[in-house]
Design a protein that fits this description.
The complex is a heterodimer. Chain A is an alpha/beta fold. Chain A has 3 helices and 11 strands, in the order E-H-E-E-E-E-E-E-E-E-E-H-H-E. Chain A is globular. The termini of chain A are far apart. Chain B is α+β, with helices and mostly antiparallel strands. Chain B has a single domain, classed as 4-Layer Sandwich (Glutamine Phosphoribosylpyrophosphate, subunit 1, domain 1), CATH 3.60.20.10. Chain B contains 12 helices and 18 strands. Chain B has helices at residues 29-37, 71-84, 116-122, 126-140, 162-168, 215-223, 234-248, 253-260, 265-268, 273-285, 332-336, 371-383, and strands at 14-20, 26-27, 47-52, 62-68, 85-92, 106-114, 144-148, 153-158, 175-176, 178-183, 199-201, 204-210, 295-301, 304-309, 318-322, 325-329, 344-346, 354-357. In chain B, helix 6 (215-223) packs across helix 7. The radius of gyration of chain B is 20 Å and the shape is globular. Classes of the chains: A alpha/beta, B alpha+beta. The interface between A and B is medium-sized, with 22 and 21 residues.
Chain lengths: 247, 384
Amino acid sequence: MTVLIDAKGLHFEELNQRIRKTLQSGAEKIIIDNVNGQRYIGAGIKGTQTLIINGIPGNDMAAYMDGLELVVYGNGQDAIGNTMNKGKIIIHGNAGDTLGYAMRGGQIYVKGNVGYRVGIHMKGYQDQIPVVVVGGKAGDFFAEYMAGGIQILLGLNLKAGERIVGDFCGTGMHGGVIYLRGRVEEHQVGREVKIVDVEAGDLEIIAKHVKNYAQYFNIDFQQVMAKPFVKLIPYNKRPYGNLYTSY
Amino acid sequence: MLKEGQIRIPAGCAISGIMNRKGEVFSGRDIIKSIALMHERSNGLGGGFAAYGIYPEFKKYYAFHIFFENKLAKQETEFLLKKYFQIDYDEAIPTRKVSSIKKSPIIWRYFAKPKVNRLIAHEASEAEYVVEFVMKVNSEIEGAFIFSSGKNMGVFKGVGYPEEIGDFFKIDEYKGYLWTAHGRFPTNTPGWWGGAHPFTLLNWSVVHNGEISSYDANRRYLEMYGYKCTLMTDTEAITYIFDLLLRKFGLPLESAVNIVAAPFWSNIERMEPERKKLMKSLRAVFGSLLINGPFSIILGGENGFVALNDRLKLRSLVAAEKGDIIYVASEESAIREVCPNPHRVWAPQGGEPVIGLLEGKEGIFDVEDDGLAEEEILQQSIAL
């Protein structure tokens, strides 16, 4: 069952209550039109249903989300997928700062660019491996304090002189892995980060996620894979282990 | 009540700006809609608007908007005002009854020009004369606060949510070419009418989301140049920093931006020799004016605005344009609320200014135009 909700002029509390009620009443898919700035859409919801969001969803979309699939036709704002546990987010546009903040599971695919501090303190445990795939570029502090999971930047459609990632990339990183389709200078990455070549196993992981990206946004998979990737990993699982004590 | 410095309230803010580059004026309705969309970023303890181009019939007069806590403060201020200025027209700023806005102060506006004989005796520029007057009133008269002192512009602010304050001041009935707005969520200071944003001086106005950890270093430097930071709030200091750098020191806007949101030393090291030298000099000479801590601000001036983030981008800022109109706001949705399909939307980087200027203008303000005063001074000296 598909249900349509018109979000025009609705306060976020009312909109989110209606979304929850509609899901409880058995809807498999909700199409939400005229979304503009309403916060917390999909936040804290456990389930396997789909929300189609037309417009600009507000901050903290999918915070603590546990299973839903959100498809956004528009740009996203800040803190998307904050501490998200499970589910999938597909954004047909750009997204703001701190996307995937402390994310601990699920996948986020962004067609365009993302802002600052994306994937800050993302973490993983055993089979809970969060994934962020960004088609364009990311701002400064990408993957700051990253502790687990996978982040992939594709650098598609960059203008001349534009960098795939900003400064301070991976500062404080102590887990997880970053794949960049393009080059990154030593001075752009945090001192905890090692830039290494990708291996066969890496390419398998990359291909799996790029395939999804290509399918969601109707992009040529082969063309994306034709350009070389580099891999960023932390030197040490506990970079600050000896900061205050030497034993 | 306890004011700044006597109480700390632990806790975001919303900012928005709209400008027509051709200088065509439009109603305050859009800016209210834009800031109201971000209601959740405020907590009802402050809201305000800066409007440029609203007093064309008085454009050669300083428009003083003043809060008075009581009649005595009004009398004292008027005594001083009449001593230094010739008042052409004054009235209570028109307001509407809004159920949630209570306990408003006496709110008056005066359209005035400096008294020529006083100005001559003062031996300083007209702008300096006005600044000193504002500082005097705000620091010496208990219960009086000049919250707007520019020409053909005005600030309207108070305690409440911004949309309520807009309704209270009938913002929809004014027409300006540049509007900025603020919704307040006070973090360190109590909400009172004078403490709401925008903060102003002459034609400058600043709305700010953030919290400045360099406040005391900035304040000490400003005090050396006669600024009195009476409000103990960071946004007031930011306003004076731009007045000092742009008006008093006459620095280019780009340099001012590179002083307050200076590039990191590590980035300066990699610059071309000439640029490196400039950046090093700016950091060395004006180190005390570096604004540290999270901020997104919109600085309004007579010719346009500059929106700027701290270099780490610790607060959000989005810009958009459609035709002659340029928008900036804390959230993209706040822009789309009044402009559903902009031609271009972008998120500026930390320390990267978004500059909106009126067509044909090269700077955010015109270098001091004392033409009128000079002419009058000349006439006066002939008469003497």
